Amino acid sequence: MHSNKKQQTVIRTFRIKAELDDVLKNEAERQGVSVNHLVNSVLQKYASFDRLARNGNFITLTKHVFGEILKGIPLERLAQAGDNAGQKDIRDVLDMLGLPKDYESFTHIVTKLFGASDRAMWFNCYRSIQENRAFLHLQHDLGRGWSVFLQHYFLSYLKSLDIDCEAKVYDYALNLKTLRQHPFLHSGSDKFHENSKRKE
């Protein structure tokens, strides 16, 4: 059940440069939204990603450059890199977000941080729940090496939670399926989306 509670808002006045105002008005018109909506989107992205990227020493590469780097790395090295980095990286991100280290928080950052089109953009994420099992379909265009890295990166964290997960690797996608039942939070907030009840 989704909550219909309206999020509280505040009124705050800012003084900005005229050229920035022109950029906001032009971009809002291009997107077909109000300047207020655009500014809220920009602030939301800063709160949920940009400040973490800065504090977490993220770097920015074009997709072309990153793809060329991946092509030169053997699959076994990418798998090892995922194993080595995944558990610590994900725990660090959860700590920065102030989220508990559990499965619900994991799916939140996969869908809303790593998989969001205006955040990290590692992939496009599609989530579903069938018979109390969670399915994550991670789709990208960076080749099999990236799928292999993601497989080991995410499974290394899930193993630390003692969660059994089946992964299927494709050239341009990765499917993750939990093999045990887990309770899912169901909320109308941006934090969690699906709910499922643990079978007796």
Please render the helix and strand layout as text.
Blueprint: H1 18-31, H2 35-55, H3 63-71, H4 75-97, H5 103-114, E1 124-130, E2 133-139, H6 144-160, E3 165-170, E4 173-178
Antiparallel strand pairs: 1-2, 2-4, 3-4
Task: Report on the architecture of this protein.
The protein is an alpha+beta fold. It contains six helices and four strands. It has a four-stranded antiparallel β-sheet with strand order 1-2-4-3, with helices on one face. α1 (18-31) packs across α2. The model is unreliable at 184-200 (pLDDT under 50).
Q: Roughly how much helix do the residues carry, as a percent range?
A: 40-55%
Unreliable sequence segments? 184-200
Q: How many strands, which pairing sense, and closed or not: the largest β-sheet? A: 4 strands, antiparallel
Report how far the terminal alpha carbons are from each other. Answer: 21 Å
Topology, number of strands: 4
* Structural category: alpha+beta
Q: Give the topology string: H per helix, E per strand.
A: HHHHHEEHEE
Mean pLDDT, to the nearest integer, reads 84
Q: What topology, given as strand order, has the largest sheet?
A: 1-2-4-3
As a percent range, the share of strand residues is 5-15%
Shape: globular
Please tally the helical runs, counting DSSP H or I stretches of 4 or more residues: 6
Based on CA atoms alone, the radius of gyration comes out at 19 Å
